[in-house]
Amino acid sequence: MMRRSSSIPSPPSPVVRFAAFLLLCTISSSLGFTPPSPQLLRPISSNLSTKSTKLYNIYDDWSTDLLSTASSDYTYEDLILPFCDEEAVEECLEELMDSDYGKTMFGRHDMAANVGITGTLELISLEGPEATLSLIGKFWHRRETVLGKAAMYLNARMPEITSITVASAEDLNDFEEVTDEFTGEVLYVEDKRSPDFNGDRETMEYQGLDPDARGPFPPSVFGSGVKIIPT
C-alpha cells in the first residue's frame, strides 16, 4: 500500500488517553465516557454512508502506537474517518472486536469462547455526537474496561463522537444483586463476569495487580511470557 506522508503530530499515547478516560468514568455522575470535545471539522451525516471503513485492521497498530511508523501500513491521517454515521460506528466496533486484542475480550473468537467469554458490543443509537452502546454477554474484563476501549477507539477514529454511553447503569455492573420480588431481600449476588477459568484473575487481584492490564490469557499464549500460577 502506498503510504501518505503526514505532518500531523502523533497524539498522546492510547495508554495515557485510556487511563484518563477511565478516571472520567469513575468520577462522573453520568453513564457516558466524555473525552475533550474537538472542534468539529466536518458535519455528522444523517444518512448511512456507502463508503466502507474496512482497512484490514488498524486497531492493533493504533493501540500499540505503531501508526506512522515503518511497522504499520497506516498513518494517523488514515485513522481519522472522513465521515461519521451509524455504519461507520458499527464498522469501527467490528474492527475492535476482530482485532488481535479483541480475541482476548470477545466471545466471537474460539479462544475466548472456549473459556466461557460470550461478550459482544452493539450500537443502539447515534444521535449527534452521542453514541449509545450495549454490552451483551459475559466478559472476563471489567465491563467499564470494555466500554472504555470502545469509547477511546470511536473517538480516535471519529472525533465528532464526544460521548459514548450505555443504555442502562446495570450494563456496567460486573455483579448483580438478585432480590426477592415480594420482600426486596437480597437472595444472592450474581457474578456477570465470565469464569476465572485458571484462577489468574483472582491471583492478580490478590497481588494488587489490574487483571485487565494483562487479560485472561498469559503472554505465553501469544509467544512469550510467564504464566501466573495461582497458589
Walk me through what this model shows.
With 231 residues, the protein is an alpha+beta fold. Helices cover 29% and strands 13% of the residues. It is built from 8 helices and 5 strands, in the order H-H-H-H-H-E-E-H-E-E-E-H-H. The chain has helices at 14-27, 59-63, 76-79, 86-98, 110-113, 143-157, 200-206, 211-214; strands spanning 120-127, 130-136, 163-166, 175-179, 186-191. The strands form 2 sheets. The protein has a 3-stranded mixed sheet, with helices on one face. Helix 1 packs across helix 6 (143-157) and helix 4 (86-98) packs across helix 6. The protein is globular and about 55 Å long. The model is unreliable at 1-9, 23-31, 36-54 and 224-231 (pLDDT under 50).
Write a compact overview of the structure shown.
This protein is an alpha+beta fold and 231 residues long. It contains eight helices and five strands.
Architecture blueprint of SSEs:
Layout: H1 14-27, H2 59-63, H3 76-79, H4 86-98, H5 110-113, E1 120-127, E2 130-136, H6 143-157, E3 163-166, E4 175-179, E5 186-191, H7 200-206, H8 211-214
Parallel strand pairs: 2-3
Antiparallel strand pairs: 1-2, 4-5
Characteristic key phrases:
disordered N terminus; two-stranded antiparallel sheet; 8 helices; 13% strand; 29% helix; alpha+beta; 231 residues; 3-stranded mixed beta sheet
